[in-house]
Amino acid sequence: MQAQYVRPGDGNTTQSNINNPNSKPGGFGENLSIGGSFGLQFGTYTYVGLEPLLNYHFNKSFMVGAGPIYQYVSEDFGYGYGRYSSSTYGARITALFFLPEDLDRVFLMGEYDVLNVPEQSFITGQMYRGNLALPMLGLGYKEKVTDKLFFFVYGLWNFNNSVYNPYSNPVIDAGFDLGLWH
Question: Is residue 3 part of a domain?
Fold first, then answer.
């Protein structure tokens, strides 16, 4: 049996704290990480997507993140039919819960996006912009690259069925998380 007394606030960590998924890491800055995802595609169909995140790790099992979203889409229809381009922007909040023990690379994920999207009036045919809320839930997997860098891949189900919804189901994405603590 191992026993070790640690005075509160002296910065030492016991072995039991290291193995406890609910133990809190160090100070506020050590609980932060940056991450997110981006996408690029060029050609007849062009897509540029930037989705950075600032994450806060409450413990090794639970983290939340928030960040902006920007997506640019341009498509050349060819044969004289013209070109379409638009930008979608907004923000998102994410929450990840990592499963315990041997499944600690698997996580449950919730995401809530609010996007400003182009919308076309069915009556006048004119384009205008509107806000769209997108609640999503799903599963993911993380892989450790270094002590502070992780690669994520996840699939989410989008519960908004609007015709202006830019995401089709399932939403599959990949990204990274770089932090001061993991």
Answer: no
Spatial distance between the Cα atoms of 60 and 182, rounded to a whole number of angstroms:
7
Beta strands, E only, the chain: 32-41, 45-57, 62-76, 83-98, 106-120, 127-144, 149-158, 171-179
Question: Residue 18: helix, strand or coil by DSSP?
Answer: helix
The structure's pTM equals 0.76
- Whether residue 7 is contained in a domain is answered as no
Q: Which domain holds residue 107?
A: 27-179
Q: How do residues 41-54 score in pLDDT, each as one tens digit?
A: 888 888 899 999 99
Residues 98-139 pLDDT 10s: 999 899 999 999 999 999 998 877 788 788 889 999 999 999
